[in-house]
Design a protein that fits this description.
Layout: H1 8-17, E1 18-28, E2 42-53, E3 59-63, E4 68-74, E5 77-79, H2 81-84, E6 89-93, E7 98-110, E8 115-120, E9 127-132, E10 154-159, E11 165-168, E12 172-174, E13 179-182, E14 195-198, E15 201-209, E16 212-220, H3 230-248, E17 257-262, E18 269-270, E19 275-279, H4 290-306, E20 314-315, H5 322-339, H6 345-361, H7 376-381, H8 386-402, H9 404-418, E21 422-423, H10 425-436, H11 440-447, E22 455-462, E23 468-476, E24 483-492, E25 498-508, E26 512-514, E27 526-531, E28 538-539, H12 543-552, H13 559-574, H14 580-590, H15 597-614, H16 617-637, H17 643-655, H18 659-670, H19 682-694, H20 700-709, H21 713-725, H22 729-741, H23 747-757, H24 763-766, H25 769-783, H26 786-795, H27 804-816, H28 822-847
Parallel strand pairs: 1-10, 7-8, 16-17, 17-19, 20-21, 22-28
Antiparallel strand pairs: 1-2, 2-7, 3-6, 4-5, 4-7, 8-9, 9-14, 10-13, 11-14, 12-13, 15-16, 18-19, 22-23, 23-26, 24-25, 24-27
């Protein structure tokens, strides 16, 4: 991987030297069809780049990662591939003012989700291709200048196997020779070009608005077609286009709008203009909750926002990745709430997305939203909770600070002023200063150019009659920021509901801010700082409010306020300020009353993490038993056929641990047990079978029987995960070898194997691999693609060996490997920090024993 890296300085020098007029890319993909067992296959890639020299110098390089190069010519002069190509770059010199470079190469199909990914459907043997490039994998498919600020128009031509259809960014058609030729794109960056090819199931529609017509397409593998609800995808797509056209005053600029749901995808989705790609898990094979549909809608709208934030206007370098990702993450929830049926999407944002941000912002690797990205490896790791969720949270704060109208007017001017260009932070701030009249530089310094999360705690005093004499908000943290926030006062109604009776919206600055508007109010039962979730902070409580939540959290009627309180209690638990067993107690008492299904799913995940990581080892068995008993109780109480019933069924399966639990799961699988209204479809069957495999009650034969019921790509991933999850030393050794010592598994099966290998109930069984992990990771980082290396380094860190000895082993590795790749060190440092946090939380929980 080091030879494949590209530094910011190198990119800056190259951008100063040249500008690109256009690309013509010709791909021959006919080799994709054949014996799927063959380990390595390549395809022919011919690229013509027309570019001009605009600066000083006569030499540069072109990016290409390929097994071999057949020929290279510059301005008609042949270059020797053996001399100029080193495996990741082609050196070129003797540049003229105007240049034509032609590269003829054999590029490799991928099984890691990077570059041109090739997938064989086990259900019908069909082959499917798609590309995924961000941040810098277009060079695995064609020669290019792989950096976002060297935009250019593209023309693609693709020869594919007979019977296939091919899609790219522009509209295309097949000529008389069978070649698929595509319209030239607008100027775009390399990382958002795209090719999708294969016998995909394809559905069409159109979006019409005045004189504007946008052809719409949606596709998936043929074997998934029976599950594909394209109508709902198109509905959300049209609602998104309505919102963006109403508010951005810049018509969608890229012609058609196809959306492909593709297999073994590493990301949630990718914003290739005119050809958006999604992970196919967004096609639901069984019954799912509305939270799943809301999540898919959010991703659809997130990617659509990128058509403006990222594709039309692109950051100069990955330092300003937030200029697209933070905006898209914010707009996903913004548009969902205002233009679709998911009107409570800000509840999901407060409870789910911000949890990601809070975790990332407390890691030693936290960074400002505008990050210092030295090279491509840094860029790859910065697609994180800071860039996405914290950035989106800060933009929500900006809307409260500057005003909605000023924010949207700023966006409109930004698009018109910088269309098809590249920008930096200052370009956006200058426009927002125009529209809001606010000092954006000071705001940006506090919110975009510093790291860390503040905590806001109410400090309240009362008079003899129980009225507030003073309510202040105390701010703690490294950088004391300006917050536009609301403070809500809640009390019990006559029928026992906890409702808001007073609210003040204020500017919080410095270490202590008095909220004068609330003086004289009656004593509340709950003071909620950051009511309505306007700012980004960790919410803390005064003693009385915390006591109220412990006893009455489920009585809060407002779903957003309730979600904020759940999140705040979880942050207290993670920070070692609330015993894990206390969080479990609150969850078991009130999760059954949670009406928002997305919040309930997050509470389930947090509760399992509390027992697995933050509870003392001595209490884990009891904690697990309480979770299983609570899960089964709520499962039986849930409305038959409801999404809550399905959610509790999955939670019960994930926490089952007793013989009685396992007998019920076996009965649900073989039909001898029933729970009224619970539809045990194929996806739920895998969930019910999983704990049986983990606890040794389902062997290889039984898992194979389930695969025979579901002999699909998804079924294969479940089978691989369950096989690796069995409680056997031989099984663990085989799984380790498949992931660490071999590179034959695809990205999806690597992920599945790791998920099966790491089981909380098998700590002793996998303990020997802690030492092996630290011995292997530097070699693995050097040998594997960065995506696979990241998955393995993160997924196999021995965090379940939660002891001071493991912490010391991580520290020893970091000390002994100071010269290791910074991205690798970051991953180990983050995992080490999670382990240290767990040990601190366990110490807190031990005090409650």
């Amino acid at each position: 991987m080091p030879g494949e890296n590209l530094s910011r300085d190198e990119a800056h020098e190259r951008a100063a030297l040249l500008s690109v007029d256009g690309y013509e890319v010709v791909l021959d993909l006919r080799s994709a069809v054949g014996d799927s067992a063959e380990a390595v296959r390549t395809f022919r890639s011919e690229t013509t780049i027309r570019f001009r020299r605009t600066g000083e110098g006569t030499s540069t390089f072109v990016d290409l990662i390929a097994p071999s190069v057949n020929a290279v010519s510059l301005n008609g002069r042949a270059l020797d591939p053996a001399v100029v190509f080193d495996g990741s770059r082609i050196a070129i010199d003797g540049l003229a003012d105007e240049n034509v470079l032609v590269v003829d190469a054999q590029c490799a199909y991928s099984r890691t989700g990077e570059g041109m990914h090739r997938f064989v459907d086990p259900e019908d043997g069909e082959v499917y291709l798609y590309t995924q490039y961000e941040p810098a994998d277009a060079r695995r498919v064609y020669a290019n200048f792989e950096q976002p600020d060297l935009k250019a128009p593209y023309r693609f031509a693709v020869t594919a196997p007979e019977g296939w259809t091919v899609w790219s960014n522009g509209a295309g058609e097949q000529d008389a020779e069978g070649v698929w030729r595509f319209a030239e794109t607008a100027p775009i960056s390399t990382y958002i070009t795209c090719v999708v090819a294969g016998p995909y199931h394809y559905v069409t529609d159109s979006y019409e608005r005045g004189d504007l017509t946008i052809p719409l397409g949606a596709m998936c593998r043929k074997s998934l077609a029976k599950h594909f609800d394209a109508d709902d995808v198109f509905l959300i797509t049209k609602q998104g286009f309505d919102f963006f056209h109403d508010n951005f005053d810049y018509p969608y600029p890229f012609g058609k709008y196809d959306q492909a749901f593709v297999p073994e995808y590493n990301l949630g989705a990718m914003e290739n203009p005119g050809m958006v790609t999604f992970r196919e898990e967004y096609i639901y094979r069984g019954k799912v909750t509305q939270a799943a549909y809301e999540s898919r809608a959010n991703v659809i709208l997130h990617e659509m926002a990128h058509m403006w934030f990222g594709d039309l206007v692109t950051m100069v370098w990955w330092d300003d990745l937030w200029l697209k990702e933070s905006f898209a993450d914010f707009m996903g929830s913004f548009v969902n709430a205002e233009a679709t049926r998911f009107t409570n999407s800000w509840v999901t944002f407060a409870n789910n997305r911000k949890a990601w941000a809070y975790r990332a912002d407390q890691l030693p690797s936290t960074h400002p939203i505008t990050a210092d990205i030295r090279d491509l490896e840094d860029a790859k790791l910065n697609f994180d909770g800071i860039t996405y969720a914290k950035g989106a949270s800060v933009l929500k704060q900006l809307v409260a600070y500057a005003g909605r109208d000023a924010f949207l007017e700023g966006a409109r001017r930004y698009f018109k002023r910088h269309a098809y260009g590249n920008t930096r932070l200052a370009d956006l701030l200058s426009i927002l200063e125009e529209t809001s009249g606010r000092d954006m530089k000071a705001w940006a310094k506090s919110w975009l150019q510093t790291s860390g999360v503040n905590s806001l705690t109410p400090a309240v005093t009362y008079d003899a009659e129980g009225r507030i004499t003073e309510l202040a908000v105390v701010q703690e943290g490294g950088e004391l920021r300006p917050h536009r926030a609301a403070v809500g006062l809640y009390r019990f109604s006559p029928d026992g509901e906890l409702v808001r009776f007073a609210r003040a919206e204020v500017d919080i600055t410095g270490a202590r801010t008095v909220v004068a508007e609330l003086a004289g109010e009656e004593k509340p039962d709950l003071v909620l700082v950051n009511d309505d979730d306007l700012t980004y902070c960790k919410i803390r409580f005064d003693e009385g409010s915390l006591a109220t939540l412990r006893a009455h959290l489920g009585d809060i009627t407002d779903p957003l306020a309730r979600a904020l309180c759940w999140s705040a209690l979880w942050n207290l638990t993670r920070d070692g300020l609330m015993p894990a067993r206390d969080f479990v107690s609150v969850a078991l008492a009130f999760a059954g009353r949670e009406t928002d299904i997305g919040v309930l799913q997050m509470v389930h995940a947090w509760t399992k993490s509390a027992v697995t990581h933050y509870a003392t080892p001595e209490w884990r068995e009891e904690g697990g038993r309480l979770l299983a008993e609570g899960g089964l109780r709520e499962l039986r109480l849930a409305e038959p056929g409801s999404e809550h019933q399905l959610t509790w069924a999955r939670f019960f399966a994930a926490t089952a641990g007793s013989d009685a639990d396992f007998q019920l799961l076996e009965g649900l699988l073989d039909g001898t047990a029933k729970i009224d209204g619970l539809d045990v479809d194929q996806e739920l069957r895998w969930a019910l079978l999983s704990p049986l495999a983990v606890h040794g009650r389902a062997d290889e034969g039984r898992i194979g029987e389930e695969l025979s019921r579901d002999d699909t790509a998804t079924g294969k991933r479940h089978q691989v995960r369950l096989l690796a999850s069995r409680p056997s030393a031989a099984v663990k050794a085989q799984a380790w070898a498949q992931v660490v010592e071999s590179d034959t598994l695809s990205n999806a099966l690597v992920e599945a194997t790791i998920a099966g290998f790491v089981q909380p109930s098998q700590r002793e069984l996998i303990a020997p691999y802690a030492e092996k992990y630290f011995a292997a990771i530097e070699r693995l980082w050097a040998d594997r693609s960065i995506q696979i290396a990241m998955d393995v380094v993160k997924g196999l860190f021995p965090g379940l060996q939660d002891s001071d000895e493991t912490l010391a082993a991580a520290d020893a590795w970091l000390t002994a490997h100071e010269s290791a790749a910074p991205a690798l060190r970051r991953l180990v440092l983050e995992a080490r920090d999670d382990l240290a946090r767990a040990l601190r939380a366990q110490a807190c929980d031990r005090l409650a024993a």
